[in-house]
Amino acid sequence: MQSSKRKLLLAAASASLLGSATGARAHGDKDHPQKSGAVKKEQKDWGIAGDVRAVKRTIEFQMLDTMRFVPDRIEVRLGETVRLVHRNAGKVMHEFVIGTKKELDEHAALMVKFPNMEHDEPYMAHVPPGGRAEIVWTFNRAGEFDFACLIAGHYSSGMVGKITVRAA
Ligand SMILES: [Cu+2]
Questions:
Q1: Does 71 sit behind a cis peptide bond, omega within 30 degrees of 0 on the bond before it?
Q2: Tens of pLDDT, residues 119-157
Q3: Residues 143, 11, 115, 135, Cα dihedral to 10°
Q4: Ligand 1 mean position, distance from CA 158 (Å)
C-alpha cells in the first residue's frame, strides 16, 4: 500500500521533473507540437526557455532566509524574454522555480517527501548561500504564474512570488 503509493509518486516525479529528458510526460495527451529535436526548449504553460540574445530586460531577485523573495511580484509583457537573476543573500540554500500554482504545489509536496530529490530544468535555479544564478525565460503565455523556493519548509513558509504576463 505505502510502497505502491511511493512508486507512483516517484513515477510522477520523474515524469514531471525530468520531462523531455526521459521522454516521459506527466500530461502525455496534451498538445505538445514541438519536434523531438528540441530537448530542453519544452513549451510549458508558463513559457519556454529563452535565447540569451533575445534578452532585453534583467530582473534581479534577492533570496532571503526570512523565506522571502525581493521582489515577490513582477510583471512582464507577453512574448518578452527576460533574464531573471537570483542572488542568495542568506546562509542556506534557496531555489527559484517558475510554474503554475498547481505544478508548484505538487512539486513542493514531493520535495517534502524526498528532500534530496535532484532535478534541473531551464525554469529552475538552485542557489547556494552567497551565490548567484540566472534563468533566461520567454513568457509566451499570458496569465498569472508563480515562482517559489520548493526546498522543504521554505515553500510552506511562504517563499513564493507572482509573475503576471500581460498581452501587449
Ligand atoms: Cu528557500
A1: yes
A2: 889 999 999 999 999 999 999 999 999 999 999 999 999
A3: -40
A4: 9
Q: How far, in Å, CA of 75 to CA of 82, rounded?
A: 11
The whole-model pTM stands at 0.76
CA 47 to ligand 1 centroid distance, Å: 23
Q: How far is the CA of 138 from the centre of ligand 1 (A)?
A: 24
Going from the C-alpha of 161 to that of each of 98, 131, 148, the distances in angstroms are 9, 20, 6
Q: How far is the CA of 34 from the centre of ligand 1 (A)?
A: 33
Distance 40 CA to ligand 1 centre (A): 25
pLDDT in tens, 25-83: 343 334 444 444 444 789 999 999 999 999 999 999 999 999 999 999 999 999 999 99
